[in-house]
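Tutorial, part two.
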Amino acid sequence: MPEKLPISLVVITFNEEANIERCLSAADFCAEMIVVDSGSTDRTVELSIACGADVRTRPWSGYGPQKNFGCDQTSQPWILCIDADEVVTPELRASIINAFRSTPHVDGFDINRHGVYAGQLINHSGWYPQWRTFLYRKGSAEWGGMEPHVTVEFHGKSKQKLIGDLLHYTYRSIDEHLRKNISSAQAAGQAMHALGKSATALDLTLRPIWAWFRSYLMQLGFLDGFLGLVIANGQATYTFLKYAYLRELNAGGPKSNQR
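Running the prediction step on this input gives:
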């Protein structure tokens, strides 16, 4: 194993025993690994510690706040912040190591995330290519945007693209896809409600149709075969649900439980 790189790996978790070892092991070139756990009841914490991670327990406050908290705990000058279901490929690993053979002259590196659905690589449907600034110099970026789909807000001077993909193991089955869609839609509805947004009848009818059209046709989801159709339908369902939950909240309905 080569000398550790001056990078802190940050991963947020909740009941991720099926993913965490794979995630941490693939990024063992990082000098520091920090896991921010929000009360897992499985073996997530135990497995994280066994992989050499420093586990910090923090009540769930949202994807952005959890990630930013973890990044604030780091001691290294660079941060690689990914999710437990994301894995650094050997090609990406080599690319990162090569980029740090000398002091990087940029403040961030864009990495191409490649979605995996039930073991199948998804090459279209808006899932690939998907460039994100997952690796950045500490202090040059933070996590923001609307829950639950937060993104890196980069304010450094320059970035560079790395070779190799970050695999994103999204769903193991259609059932898991549907369950996560409901949870994500609830979180999105709550976030929009907090911002004072409203949901009209047109939002509930036209936005799901547009989401399907964009995923399946504009983003070439039909080239992903059966799963491309599943993803497009899932996008339409998610879009409908988040506006339906928003409308329910605006009417004084119950808040959904997250985590």
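The radius of gyration is 19 Å. In part three we will examine how such features are distributed along the chain.
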